[in-house]
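Class prep. Sample record?

___
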Amino acid sequence: MKKYSIIALIACVALMSACGPKDPGLKDAYKKYFKIGVAVTERNVQDPDQAALILKEFNSITAENCMKPGELHPEPGVWNFEKADIIANFCREHGIKMRGHNLVWHSQFATWMFTKHDANGNPVVELDAKGDTVWVERRSFRRPAPGETPSFTPGSMPPMEVTMVPKYVAASKEEFYDSLKVHIQTVVNRYKDVVYCWDVVNEAMSDSDNINASYEDSFRKSQAYQLCGDEFIKNAFIWAHEADPNCGLFYNDYSAWTPAKRTYIYNMVKKLQSEGAPITGIGMQGHYNIFDNPTLEDFEKAINMYLELVDDIQITEFDIRINEEAGGGLQFSRGEGQQYTEEIQKKQEQKYKDLFAIMRKYSKNISSVTFWNVSDRDSWLGANNYPLLFDSEYQRKPVYYTVRDFKKNK
């Protein structure tokens, strides 16, 4: 056992002894309902104090970023397992199971799979009629050099710079599938002893808010969809099942409670299941806010819709921010200047209370609820959005007790 793991375990035992049996963790309070999970980085599990908190409060762990395709597999034949292995080994050492996140996602994807490569793994350059390399423009935001004063004001777009790069030959659908299958089965096999379910495909549906959209228009027009249609989703589930027939296989998406997106997801899952896709669960990302995202009525309606297709639903990326934005997009306010007033705190506590009440109601079919990060300090939303149960010093906030002590707070 590694040194940091021993220290973390000792710290955890000391913390639990000090708190005593009258101070259960979240996982203990919900042991008759569902697993309580958390998304972590390798740094979280290597810090003794944070590791102790994780061991006390949670019984399911998700790697926040380091198991995503582009992180694990950035180039043909190149695998970066170090960070993912640190988290997986922490779970193995402490008897905690993992949610695998994720195998296919348009963002942080192994985009090299869309380019044809030669036998040596080099991208194949497109040539013109004379046999010369075809060059194309690549536009990107220019970052200021170290010490350089930015020439744009806050809130405006940074200047663009244009460079010329070779144009590469696109991979065929068959070549893409060959690469994707190897990726999926390599990853699933490596972690099958510790991963109890995978987000096989993540965020493949459109953000369009048109409940009457055609089936084709309900999809995000990602590179994979443009090349393969919905077939890439079906194949990803089949290949993951081949690698681990005993693993739960989830489709995962944000805003999965809205009337439009829940309809898109429902129709896609129903169709692909009929074609043989072993989709066993649906992950509802919980990137919510304290206002009307989600509405309680629509949240429950979505759960009931999905239960027509699967027996297992998970709330996979749970946080409740204090501004009016929500969902999984990256264009959000990180909360500069926002105040965590008593009124805001009460709204957040009520939202957590109401959502957990619904989730407990459906606990026979909700197998886990995963908080997206350990504390406000770690949150992708920024600490000033105060989205989680632990503050920036890893201390319990009042909302923690709203969630944990639901029997006392009836």
Remarks:
- The longest strand covers residues 312-321.
- The chain is about 35% helix and 15% strand.
